[in-house]
Amino acid sequence: MEKRLRIAVQSKGRLYDETMALFAEAGIKLTAVKRTLLVPSRNFPVEFLFLRDDDIPGTVADGTADLGIVGLNEVLEKGSAVDVVKELGFSRCRLSLAIPQHIEYNGLQWFNGRRIATSYPVILRKFLNENGIRADIHVISGSVEIAPGIGLADAIFDIVSSGSTLVSNNLEEVHSVVESQAVLIKGAGVTLSDDKAAILDELLFRFEAVKAAEGRKYILMNVPRQKLDEVLAILPGMKSPTVLPLANADWCSVHSVLDEKMFWQIVSRLKSAGAEGILALDIEKMIL
Ligand SMILES: Nc1ncnc2c1ncn2[C@@H]1O[C@H](COP(=O)(O)OP(=O)(O)OP(=O)(O)O)[C@@H](O)[C@H]1O
Ligand SMILES: O=P(O)(O)OC[C@H]1O[C@H](OP(=O)(O)OP(=O)(O)O)[C@H](O)[C@@H]1O
Ligand SMILES: [Mg+2]
């Protein structure tokens, strides 16, 4: 039987969409089986094991899945024997301590003797121990941010991203403990078979190509030959911009790749230097 790399992914929730989008951009398609736990790809030797995110680190650690995609926060909380193979750059958030607004906060000592509600007791306990804080940890599995408002706790330790959940619950972030993002994990110290290692290499190669293209634009413009040097001096090309002749010999077409942010910084300079018909196109993949 053909070897497939088994990857545990979240079945639904915040990680699901971006995880599936990453595989789609990497050209990896699923067979159209809905509501199945184990779904093979129809064009790449992987199969997806759809799970709740809490179960992903353990499933990878015990070898049921070869790889997993999960938030680093869950990896740290579960303490499972897994290694991070690659940081994937999405679902960025942090685990932070937050207290009711308008409380006079005098630093971490404030937490001494307080009750802190959280779904991440392991990470919190470790942090408190390291900082010599003795506090009560009250474990709840969801809606942590309402705990202070209903008198269940004095403070919370929870996921923060934009901070809007805290604001709408009259809470203030006072200390960020862990930065998290989605990560690709494998069993700690596990050596994959040659077949599976080759599939993982190809997967990582494709993820790199997708990532390299993110935030980059392919730009094209028409430039009078006389102004070519001036325009080229403005462009920070990957290596060197491509210059192509046009039907009108006085003009040429200049192509380059640049950061989207950079595009806005230089577009008016390119125009003033004589460039016309400037186009900026999305890049789907980029192999460096
Ligand atoms: N607001 C946010 N912004 C960015 N990333 C987030 C945010 N909230 C959570 N995450 C990340 O996404 C992961 C999954 O969040 P989600 O809310 O889907 O988890 P869940 O409710 O525990 O899901 P499951 O049903 O699979 O157990 C979190 O562990 C965290 O890494
Ligand atoms: O800082 P913010 O941008 O507001 O994000 C933080 C919130 O996002 C997550 O909840 P989510 O929205 O996934 O809802 P949930 O409580 O159902 O998990 C997390 O549990 C926080 O409450
Ligand atoms: Mg969960």
Automatic annotation (TrEMBL):
Its EC number is 2.4.2.17. Pfam families: HisG, HisG_C. This is ATP phosphoribosyltransferase. GO terms for biological process: L-histidine biosynthetic process. Catalyzes the condensation of ATP and 5-phosphoribose 1-diphosphate to form N'-(5'-phosphoribosyl)-ATP (PR-ATP). Has a crucial role in the pathway because the rate of histidine biosynthesis seems to be controlled primarily by regulation of HisG enzymatic activity. PANTHER family: ATP PHOSPHORIBOSYLTRANSFERASE, ATP PHOSPHORIBOSYLTRANSFERASE ATP-PRTASE. NCBIfam families: hisG, HisG_C-term. Feedback inhibited by histidine. Belongs to the ATP phosphoribosyltransferase family. Long subfamily. GO terms for cellular component: cytoplasm. It catalyses: 1-(5-phospho-beta-D-ribosyl)-ATP + diphosphate = 5-phospho-alpha-D-ribose 1-diphosphate + ATP. Residues 52-206 form the ATP phosphoribosyltransferase catalytic domain. Keywords: Amino-acid biosynthesis, ATP-binding, Cytoplasm, Glycosyltransferase, Histidine biosynthesis, Magnesium, Metal-binding, Nucleotide-binding, Transferase. Pathway: Amino-acid biosynthesis; L-histidine biosynthesis; L-histidine from 5-phospho-alpha-D-ribose 1-diphosphate: step 1/9.
